[in-house]
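Encode chain A's predicted structure.
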Amino acid sequence: MVNRSCVAWLAFVLPLLWLSTTHGQAQDPREVQARKDCLIGKYEGGAALLAELYAETTNPNFIYNQARCYEQNARPVEAVNRFREYLRIVPDISGEEKAEVERHIAECRSMQAEQEEKKTMPELPNTKEAAVPAATIVASPIPSSVPAAVVAADATKPAEPSPRKGAFLRKTGIVLGAVGVAGIASGVVFSVLTSSTKSQVESDGRNGVFDPDKDARGHTYAALQWVGYGVGAAGIAAGAITYYYGYKTGRQDGGQAVALFPVVAPGHTGVALQGSF
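Encoded structure for chain A:
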């Protein structure tokens, strides 16, 4: 017959032995890994390990730890869902513990509101990057409305003659031509004087009279005659060339041009007018 005192002793000691063995067991390494993942921002991996552990043990603490993992990683929506699930599966928790869970839920709601407010706010430009020191602004940019190809073509295109240049050359040509006509006219005058003086000297010679002054004047008139013709021819030629160049310059500018050419012919001088519109 078994001693009743022995039975009572065994009934008291065996549960204590079981508790000591269960508390002495090593912590599941998945729980440690889940805690690490949550702390370094790998909340998805940590939450998955905690879900695994809950499925095996049905310990609601793993659901609570999931909620805290999401909360620590700024995932308020997922955190609130897990806190609500924890309250559902543990309805008989103490009032102090429930108040703590509700406080976490309120903090997550506030975090969610802040995140949504940031999404709706317009982004302000970075004034530090946009600011350009005044000293670096050395030239105005090319307007966007002007194609770059046109700007490049204008830069390589040689400068066209100015209309004023053509007008100046034409005026200069007219002045030179006028000087040339005057030279030709003086040559004609001195040619007439030379011929007249020569006739007078020859007439005096037939009468046996020789006037050295008159003969000297005749030679002077003859020399001035050729000087006048030379100056006149050079002035007309230079005037014609200058005026023609000015005329061509005016044509390149696309304007109306009228050419005035000096004309020298045996027995008369004049100008020819040529125009184009």
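The chain has ten helices and two strands.
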